[in-house]
Structure formats: C-alpha cells, structure tokens
Design brief:
single chain; alpha/beta; Rossmann fold; OB fold (Dihydrolipoamide Acetyltransferase, E2P); 3 domains; 5-stranded parallel β-sheet; 5-stranded mixed barrel; 10 strands; elongated
C-alpha cells in the first residue's frame, strides 16, 4: 500500500512541475502551482472512484467514448462548407466534440454487462425457446412425492439437482440417527428412480456460491442464475423465495389443490380405524390424510362401511369431514359420486400436508 501512495505523490508532483514549466494559466508561478495541484488531486479522485467500477463497465465506457469521438469528428468534417470564422460554427464544433464522446462514455458504462462472455456467447446461440429449469430442494426429494409427479408428466422442463443439495442429502444418509439415515437413503433412492424415468431430463449442477452458507439461500441464488423455479415443500423456503422474487412450485400446495371435493349429502366408502372422542363415533382417514368423523360407527371398527356426509369443516389448518353411518346398503350409491376409502396402511401414515387431521387424530386418541 505504501508504494501505491508513493506513486500518487510522484504523479501529483509531476503535474505541478509541468504546470511550473509551462505556466499555462497565468504568468504568476503561484497560480500555476495551485492549478497543477488541483488537477493532480482531481485525477487521483477520479481514479479512486473508478476502482470500484466493474471491468466490463470501464471497457464499455472506453469503447463508447471512442465511438462517440469518432462520430463527432465525422460530423465536424462533414461541416467543411460552413464558415469556420463564425463564432456560432466554432461553438457548434466544440459542442459536437464534447457531447458525442460524453454520450458514448455514459451509455457504454451503463451497458457494460453486455460485454460479459456469457452475454456475448448468447448472441450466437440458437434463438429457440430457452430451457425451463426446476431446481429440487432437499425436503422435496426426501418427501418422495416428486417422483410420482414426474412420472405423470405434469412437471416439465429440466430437473436440476445442485451439488450442495446432494452433499446435504449424503450427510443426512450418513447420520447416526436411524430415522434421519433412513430418510436420507430414501431421498437417494428417489433420485435414482427419477433418473431412470423415460422422458425426464435430469441435470446435476456444479454451480455453487461459496460466500453463501445456508442451503436455502444458495437455492435462491441458483434459481436467479438459471432463471428457474424452486420445487419444494418447505414453508419457510417458499416464503423467503417469494420475497426475493423467485418463483416456487410447492408440492404441498399441489396436494391441497388435488384434494377431492366432498359436499354434504354425498355418499362415500371409508375404513373405520378407531373409535372417536364422542359417544358412538368412529374415525377414518382418506388417502390425503383428511380425518373423517362418523357417527353411529363405533362398532364398525376395522371395517369398510358406506357413510353419508353431513358437513365439512374447512379451516386454515386443514379440513375435517363429518358423516353418519347408515345401516344397510343405500339405494342412491349408483347415482352419487363416491370417494375411495383409505386402506389401513395409508390411514396410519397421512400425507405431510394434512396438519389439522394429525392434530385431531391426537385428540381422538385421548
């Protein structure tokens, strides 16, 4: 740093010495020395401001200034027929010589990002539609439902799996906790299943952001870089990404949108899993984890029965269905839409999105 300061001092002294020898401003020595000092300090100030600028911006300003200067000289040469002794023509020549280089420097500096290698290469690429990237989060890989969504073909574009997500998934698979270890291994199995699917484009991204420590923030930066969307079921990541202007595909929101619509008066077949909290009640669960409370069904535990829906309770936390068991086969089943009954295995492991039914199930267990 000391040598850099020394170079600046030598530069200012050189400008002062040149002003002393040539005396361009006044015959008095003091005025020329002061002017030389001011010019030297001004040049150092401009240099300090330029140090924080991007190289592409400086290069753009240089190219823009050269183009502006050439254009000004061309226009000035084209005015050869004008009277050079006229003061208005002199001012016009001076104005053209100043304004065009100025515009070139300003516009070149503002458009300097177009000199980046990626932008230059993009000019020679195919102008067809760009790839649509879908970046997978660790949580959605472990969840497993992403494989079923990919298999149905509803998720288009290229599935991007970042290296830092694979690293996090490997750490979970190598955990000492058996539960975490099983979840991590399940996530690796899901990735292998997706890679083997026909018609699904999977890419492993090596792009990393060493300055960013959190995986969620790395996903957001990667989505910005690739101009893609994040696929997740993490509520917090969903909100943070939306605040930062990144689009998110939430698997839980998709599952909630696909829940069957049940109206009072419809019939459905359910599997009574256990007794309810109130007298003579039975409790069943749909495939998506929605809890169904059935009156007059306590003695029908471990059986598939036909019920009629009496009411539906929809809250911000989830949905509950209330029904009544009718003894004997109802005559209107063939004309009324039904909802498939949940088998016992599904009833004991509802989907993660059904938060309210899980809480209600705990209350009924008491």
């Amino acid at each position: 740093m000391a040598w850099f300061l020394l170079v600046r001092v030598i530069f200012v002294l050189t400008v002062i010495y040149a002003a002393f020898l040539t005396r361009p401003f006044h015959s008095a020595i003091g005025i020329n020395l002061a002017a030389g000092t001011a010019l030297g300090v001004l040049a150092i100030w401009i240099e300090s401001r330029m140090r924080s600028a991007e190289v592409t911006d400086l290069l753009g300003a240089l190219i823009g200034g050269a183009i502006g200067l050439g254009l000004a000289k061309t226009i000035g040469a084209a005015l050869f027929w004008a009277d050079a002794a006229d003061s208005r023509i002199k001012f016009l020549h001076s104005f053209i010589l100043l304004v065009f280089p100025y515009l070139g420097i300003v516009m070149g500096a503002r458009k300097g990002e177009w000199l980046q290698p990626a932008r230059i290469a993009a000019l020679f690429r195919d102008t067809g539609p760009q790839k649509r990237y879908r970046i997978l989060d660790t949580s959605v890989i472990i969840d497993g439902r992403i494989a079923d969504v990919c298999e149905t073909g509803f998720l288009d574009g290229t599935l991007v799996i970042p290296q830092f997500v694979l690293k996090e998934l490997q750490l979970v698979a190598d955990s000492a906790d058996s539960l975490k270890r099983n979840r991590g291994r399940r996530g690796l199995d899901i990735l292998q299943k997706i890679q083997k699917m026909a018609g699904v484009d999977v890419a492993i991204s090596d792009i990393d952001f060493p300055d960013v420590r959190e995986v969620d923030l790395k996903l957001i930066e990667l989505a910005r870089t690739l101009q893609g969307k994040i696929v997740t079921n993490d509520f917090n990541l969903n909100k943070v990404a939306q605040l930062r202007g990144v689009e998110v595909l939430n698997i839980n929101e998709l599952a909630n949108a696909l829940k069957p619509v049940v109206l009072p008066g419809e019939f459905m077949k359910v599997f009574i899993l256990k007794e309810g909290k109130e007298y003579n009640q039975g409790v069943a669960y749909l495939d998506d984890g929605t809890m169904v409370v059935v009156d007059n069904a306590r003695r029908m535990i471990s059986k598939n029965i036909d019920i009629v829906v009496t009411s539906v309770l929809q809250t911000t936390a989830g949905k509950m269905i209330f029904g009544r068991y009718i003894e004997g086969p109802p005559a209107v089943h063939s004309a009324t839409p039904t909802v498939a009954a949940a088998p016992p295995a599904v009833a004991t492991a509802p989907a993660p999105a059904a938060a309210a039914p899980v809480a209600s199930r705990a209350q009924n267990a008491k």
